[in-house]
Amino acid sequence: MKILTPVVLLFAGCSAPDEGVDTESNADTAWMELGRVEGIVKRTAELTGDGVGNLIVTAFFATTPASNQQPHNGIAVLNVDFSDPDAEISFVLENFFPEPEPYYFLAVFDEDNSLMKDFTWHPSAGDLLSGPVDSGEGEPHWIASGEVLSLSLELSEVAD
Predict the structure, then answer these.
(1) Torsion of CA 55, 75, 124, 65, to 10 degrees
(2) Cβ contact 79:5 at 8 Å
(3) Structural domains for the chain
(4) How many helices, marked H, and strands, marked E, lie in the chain?
């Protein structure tokens, strides 16, 4: 089994406070520890090419993956090799605020580099997906303050 771990941060969601913000007087309530997701992506769907491409893992806040929504958080793992059916690619997503609404995750394996050309997450024909897009379906995940969520995603669908 081949396990690959190169990770490149594509986008994430949190910024530093403004200069005029008092971070000391409310230190115990003003800042909370953010959550993170550590996981792996496996493939069960048949490849449409040679198995070498980019893996994009996205997180959607309070909505299932949909083509009219932008992901809240995500990473790109570049030049991965899924030609071995036992390959597993590890990833880490950081900076998740604990929220009352769930997060939904989607992995896309992009062999033709179409997602990286215009930096959109929208899958194209032949891309492998870990779940449906635009179906309203998805597994909800809640992330508590400081929590590390373990996640396993399986590329089991081929985009039309």
Answers:
(1) 120
(2) no
(3) 3-13+31-158 (2.60.40)
(4) 2, 10
Relative to beta strand 88-96, strand 3-4 is parallel
Strand positions, DSSP E, the chain:
3-4, 8-11, 35-43, 52-61, 73-81, 88-96, 103-110, 128-129, 148-155, 157-158
Amino acid at residue number 21: V
Measure the CA–CA gap between 77 and 62, rounded to whole angstroms.
24
pLDDT tens digits, residue range 88-140? 999 999 999 999 999 999 999 998 888 777 666 678 889 999 998 888 888 99
What is the C-alpha to C-alpha distance for residues 127 and 160, in angstroms, rounded to an integer?
8
pTM: 0.78
What's the CA gap between 118 and 154, in Å, rounded? 25
* Contact in structure between 110 and 129 (CB atoms under 8 Å): no
